[in-house]
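Retry 2 of 3 after timeout on previous attempt. Resubmitting structure tokens to design endpoint.
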């Protein structure tokens, strides 16, 4: 299923350089500083139940494509009255596998089926049952449990993304194991007034930290304590998923009044946005003290379909990219702390039009900024290529944060790193054969793109 020269340049001379570069990075460990794997996998090391539960039902890329072609959510094991026979779910997926031709999902799944499970055919209606059984038999063995796959994939470190209120018990359970699994502080549930149960979440934050989180100063102190608690358990980063890149730097009295309106449920949409914006600047200031790297994922219109959200819940493939104003949005934060070298702020966008116009010029000027790799819909060979083409000439290589897989699908992790390394080696080879880099420079840059920049950006 996998051609050895996939994603490499067709020109023979350039392809030869790319092959040589790829050979130098293929065996490097996988550094995974941002992702969404289930902490329970690492704490309890359970067996995965079956192919459908592993590769179909939780994968919003797979689900959205099938739904777009008229496959009901229920046929994919999702929602009230959903199909409970996982073999039937796999059959539905396998019979529709041609829908994924040319997509990143096809590459990732082909890679998982071939390299992880040793299969030699793509899924189809004809082989669905045989593949379901073969994968099931393998998943029942110790070699396919999460910790064994961690070792097999050559993972050096992997970060989970954890709610600020999480007890991190699975991280505690994983401490006796040699693998390095670290949490990430994700405070959205206690910083977004539009989040479900916001006021109760804030109260819980106060209970956990011993601070009066219902006052503005106590609320900020509670976050500081909670961040340190995460840091003591290995966290090196925070993560913030916001609909926009807006930041503010309000006077204390203004911020306090805004917070009180939100806490009482009186904040309208613009005030909720203002509080989120203020909190990004507050978190940036906290990072100056505790050293946690800050990640901002902005520009997703989440749960675009109200009907899908109501019937099937969140993360069902109906989060849609939106235009994002980075230059105006980040200016208050950057004016406050953007020149302080103690801060690292990694930016992720779903608005590709902003790469050359806004993000690369910002990262090419402010010492705190790094550009994260193409995210979500743009985590693809073409998306990676567009990112390099648009960001390189203004931000260079060193103002980027390397690669992270940002996935919740464990079998796709090596596939995603493989794609990124191949795309980067192809791009570097073209720079060599067009005499913009010499070959020694390309060999120095390739491992930094594969692992070095991520280690440095995330302080690993």
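Retry 2 succeeded. Sequence:
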């Amino acid at each position: 299923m996998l051609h050895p020269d996939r994603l490499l340049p067709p020109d023979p001379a350039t392809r030869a350089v790319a092959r040589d570069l790829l050979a130098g990075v293929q065996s490097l460990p996988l550094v995974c500083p941002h992702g969404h794997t289930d902490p329970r996998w690492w704490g309890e090391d359970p067996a995965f139940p079956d192919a459908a539960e592993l590769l179909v039902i939780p994968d919003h890329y797979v689900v959205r494509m099938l739904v777009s072609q008229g496959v009901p959510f229920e046929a994919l094991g999702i929602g009230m009255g959903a199909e409970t026979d996982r073999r039937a779910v796999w059959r539905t997926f396998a019979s529709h596998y041609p829908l994924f031709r040319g997509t990143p999902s096809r590459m990732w799944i082909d890679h998982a089926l071939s390299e992880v499970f040793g299969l030699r055919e793509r899924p189809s209606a004809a082989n669905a049952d045989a593949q379901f059984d073969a994968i099931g038999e393998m998943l029942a063995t110790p070699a396919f449990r999460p910790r064994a796959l961690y070792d097999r994939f050559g993972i050096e470190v992997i970060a989970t993304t954890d709610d600020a209120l999480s007890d991190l018990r699975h991280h505690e359970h994983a401490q006796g194991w040699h693998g390095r699994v670290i949490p990430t502080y994700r405070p959205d549930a206690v910083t977004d007034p539009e989040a479900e149960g916001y006021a109760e979440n804030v109260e819980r934050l106060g209970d956990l930290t011993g601070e009066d989180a219902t006052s503005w100063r106590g609320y900020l102190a509670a976050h500081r304590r909670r961040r340190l608690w995460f840091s003591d358990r290995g966290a090196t980063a925070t993560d913030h998923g916001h609909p926009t890149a807006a930041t503010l730097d309000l006077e204390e009295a203004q911020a306090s009044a805004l917070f009180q309106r939100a806490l009482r449920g009186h904040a309208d949409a613009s005030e909720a946005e203002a509080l989120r914006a203020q909190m990004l600047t507050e978190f940036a200031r906290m990072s100056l003290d505790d050293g946690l790297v800050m990640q901002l994922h902005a520009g997703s219109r989440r749960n675009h379909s109200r009907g899908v959200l109501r019937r099937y819940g969140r993360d069902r493939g109906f989060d849609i990219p939106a235009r994002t104003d980075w230059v105006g949005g980040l200016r208050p934060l950057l004016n406050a702390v953007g020149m302080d070298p103690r801060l690292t702020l990694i930016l992720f966008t779903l608005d590709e039009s902003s790469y050359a116009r806004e993000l690369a010029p910002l990262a090419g000027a402010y010492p705190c900024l790094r550009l994260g790799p193409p995210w979500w819909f743009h985590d693809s060979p073409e998306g990676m290529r567009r990112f390099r083409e648009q960001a390189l000439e203004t931000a260079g290589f060193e103002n980027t944060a390397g690669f992270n897989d940002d996935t919740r699908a464990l079998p796709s992790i090596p596939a995603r790193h493989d794609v990124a390394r191949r795309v980067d080696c192809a791009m570097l080879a073209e720079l060599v054969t067009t005499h913009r880099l010499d070959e020694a420079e390309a060999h120095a840059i390739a491992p930094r793109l594969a692992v070095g920049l991520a280690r440095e950006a995330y302080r690993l």
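Attempt log closed. The domain at 12-48+144-457 is CATH 3.20.20.140 (TIM Barrel).
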